[in-house]
Structures are given as structure tokens and as C-alpha cells.
Design a protein that fits this description.
240 residues, 9 strands, 36% helix
Length: 240
């Protein structure tokens, strides 16, 4: 008859414990385990929603800053070619002495003139830099030139818009004082996310010391999420 070695109490206890665990897992998760999993899922969903909200809020800011950077590159390239700051008045293009026909707005108006001058200057015949802004254009006042200036032959007087659907603001150093005394008229986009269709009157920014910002150059800025220029949410092409 074979010898049978009796199992020790500790061995029997370990076997029962292992068997109990195996049975519990075969029977599914415990209530506590389910609560833990649900808690983890809730935290992950909360983080995802928070990240999505943050991205939705910051995306227009990021896109507008990128647009301002592209325009700065184009305006600086224009200055490099013609040795003068890109004027905020198309009629000043005559100072270049180039064989250009500078048309007039139809209907006659001075609304959005500064922004329109930027678009026309960057797209005029003879200037070959591609600023890649075609997808950022609109025509909030519906005007055009009686004689096209753009190398594409398009006569519409487009404005560059920020990601909230409003024209950007542009001033040259020579214009700062006059524009502060008599601010120009700018019409926000009809589909703007804020202050749609309103006529606003931007002014050049002054720095903390009271002097005009960007002395000797130009100011380029967005009116920001509220669509109102010269408020704290403005996005500028320079640090302020």
C-alpha cells in the first residue's frame, strides 16, 4: 500500500484560498472592481472633455497667430523688395514709380482701406512672394477696384480675416498719429463669431511707456474673440 503523506494545515489553507480566488474570477468582477473601473473611465472621459474644450477655445487664437506670422513675413518681404513699408493706402503705391494702374474702389468708400491695401500690395504684379492667404480672405463691404491691380486679375477688394471672421487691423508708423485722432472704419464679417457686421474704429496701440508701439515699422493685429479692437483680448503681431 503506497505511503500517503498528509497535507499540512497551511497547505490545505493555501489550496482553499487559490480555489476561492479561481472561483471568484470565474464568476466575474466583484462590485468593488466594477466601481474602480467605472471611476477610471469617468476620469478619462473628464480629461478628454476638458482637453477638447481647451482646444476649441485656443484653436482660433493659434490659427490667428499663425496668420499674423504669415502676413508679417509677406509685409517684411515687400519692404525688402521696395525699400519702404507696405502703405496702408493703395494710392501711395504710386510712390514706387512702377508701371501700375492704381484703380479706385467701386462703390467709392474708405472702409477697410488699410487691410485692403495689404492684400493688394502682397498680390500686385511684380511682387512674386506667395503669402498663402487666399483661404483667409473675405469682402465684408462688397467693393472692388475699377481696374484690377492683383496679378491674378481679380478686382475684388478683399480683406484678410482672423479666425473669428473679422478683418485684421493694419497701421504704418507714418499713420499712427492721424489714425489715433481719426480712427478708420472697419466692417466686421457678417458671419463673425462675435460683433458680426458691426462697424468698428481701431486705433494704433501704445506701449506701457505711452509711446506708439512698433515705432518706425507697422502694427498688425486682430480684434480678438470679442470682435472689438483695442481691448485686452486683441492678438498682436508683436509682444505687448
Amino acid at each position: 500500500m503506497p505511503n500517503v503523506i498528509p497535507s499540512s494545515p497551511s497547505r490545505r489553507s493555501a489550496v482553499r484560498s487559490a480555489t476561492s480566488v479561481a472561483r471568484r474570477h470565474r464568476g466575474g468582477f466583484s462590485f468593488i472592481e466594477i466601481l474602480v473601473v467605472m471611476g477610471i473611465i469617468a476620469v478619462l472621459v473628464g480629461l478628454s472633455l476638458g482637453l477638447a474644450s481647451l482646444l476649441a477655445t485656443n484653436a482660433p487664437v493659434i490659427k490667428t497667430k499663425s496668420l499674423l506670422a504669415k502676413l508679417r513675413t509677406g509685409i517684411d518681404a515687400w519692404r525688402g523688395v521696395y525699400q519702404m513699408t507696405l502703405p496702408s493706402d493703395m494710392q501711395q503705391f504710386r510712390r514706387l514709380g512702377l508701371p501700375l494702374t492704381i484703380g479706385k474702389p467701386v462703390p467709392p468708400n474708405t472702409t477697410n482701406a488699410e487691410n485692403e491695401a495689404v492684400v493688394q500690395g502682397l498680390s500686385m504684379r511684380g511682387f512674386d512672394h506667395n503669402s498663402d492667404i487666399d483661404g483667409d480672405l473675405m469682402n465684408s463691404d462688397g467693393d472692388r477696384l475699377d481696374t484690377p491691380l492683383a496679378r491674378s486679375g481679380v478686382a475684388d477688394l478683399h480683406e484678410v480675416k482672423d479666425d473669428w471672421g473679422n478683418p485684421l487691423n493694419y497701421f504704418t508708423d507714418a499713420q499712427y498719429a492721424a489714425a489715433e485722432r481719426s480712427p478708420p472704419s472697419v466692417i466686421n464679417g457678417a458671419d463673425s463669431k462675435a460683433n458680426a457686421g458691426a462697424t468698428v474704429h481701431p486705433k494704433p496701440w501704445r506701449n506701457a511707456g505711452g509711446a506708439f508701439a512698433q515705432a518706425g515699422g507697422y502694427q498688425l493685429f486682430s480684434s480678438g474673440p470679442d470682435g472689438v479692437p483695442n481691448t485686452d483680448d486683441d492678438i498682436t503681431a508683436w509682444a505687448r
